[in-house]
Amino acid sequence: MTPVNMAANVVVLGDGVRKRVTTEGSCPLSEYQDGTKALFHYRTVLCDDKRTMIDDSSERGKPMELIIGKKFKLPVWETIIQSMREGEVAEFLCDIPHVIEYPQVSRSLRRIAAGEDPRDGQRHCCGGIAQLHDHSLGYTDLDILQKDPQPLIFIITLLQVQDPGSYRQDAWAMSDEEKLKAVPVLHDEGNLLYKEGNIVEAAAKYYEAIACLKSLQMKEQPGSPDWIDLDLKITPLLLNFCQCKLLQGEYYQVLEHCSSILNKYSDNVKALFKRGRAHAAVWNASEAEQDFSRAVSLDPSLAPLVAKELKLLGERLHEKDREDKARFRDIFK
């Protein structure tokens, strides 16, 4: 491995963590009391000649949020942030013991940024990271890093520091009571944003409300009355989320989420109709027709809408067939 030059203006923050400031901050250093929220962008790079990029949060459109004292899975980030002033940009070279969990953390953050549940596909086991070496994280670069841990460089841009009590907490940082109170507020905010045409922001609100309820549901026995009650609260939020994803063209997410609803509630008309639209969008004609037919049988008032969707699907299939035939003619010419 080629060593990285961190010699200029280096500060040692602790055993195995070195800092180099590239842009000075504009504010005094915060006291960083427990509950302080830091918003920052991060780039994660390898310690090689090319400084190979692993992650860049600025490409996801939303900064990372970290609350001091909440025991984030990557403790070194708390150490890093507490050394920074608002507006500061700095590089941190962290040795392997501080970043051994990074592949798992990165996977979760990538899934959250994609609007997916970070817990999906995880295998619960004991014995630490070593037992995960034969389990793919779903990302080739993270699989490599998990099997061959190495030091990492974090390039942090600290955007804002918010004092405790000056912001609304994210779902993972709330108490159970706070989560229950937040759900109807988030639902209403999502509905308002949707009516205003702010689809991406509306989806984020619905997703945040779902996250609150799912975190509560995980504490209940599956199938118990309390678990079912929470699931019935999640379902309409998930359908709203799917409607946003339909408008964003993220059809496979719609298929996944609507199928999860229908596996439990096979007569959910809204899930059938939305899944039918998603099937139609990805050329699953027979599956779309089956879902539309089932939806109409359960709710005949949907017949005009279904007829419109089927007509549109037929026109698209006819146009695709015409284009395919033209393409084959050109090939044989």
Automatic annotation (TrEMBL):
Keywords of this entry: Cytoplasm, Isomerase, Phosphoprotein, Repeat, Rotamase, TPR repeat
Subcellular compartments: Cytoplasm
Domain of life: Eukaryota
Keyword Iron set for record: no
Ranges occupied by TPR repeats: 269-302
SUPFAM superfamilies registered for this protein in UniProt: FKBP-like (SSF54534), TPR-like (SSF48452)
MF term (GO), any: peptidyl-prolyl cis-trans isomerase activity
Reaction(s) this enzyme catalyzes, per UniProt: [protein]-peptidylproline (omega=180) = [protein]-peptidylproline (omega=0)
InterPro entries: AIP/AIPL1/TTC9 (IPR039663), PPIase_AIP (IPR056277), PPIase_dom_sf (IPR046357), PPIase_FKBP_dom (IPR001179), TPR-like_helical_dom_sf (IPR011990), TPR_rpt (IPR019734)
Keyword match ATP-binding: no
Enzyme class label: isomerase
Pfam families: PPIase_AIP
GO CC aspect terms: cytoplasm
Enzyme nomenclature, EC number: 5.2.1.8
Annotated ranges, domain PPIase FKBP-type: 35-88
The protein's assembly and partners: Interacts with RET in the pituitary gland; this interaction prevents the formation of the AIP-survivin complex.
Function text: May play a positive role in AHR-mediated (aromatic hydrocarbon receptor) signaling, possibly by influencing its receptivity for ligand and/or its nuclear targeting.
PANTHER family: AH RECEPTOR-INTERACTING PROTEIN, ARYL HYDROCARBON RECEPTOR INTERACTING PROTEIN RELATED
Protein name: peptidylprolyl isomerase
Source species: Leptobrachium leishanense
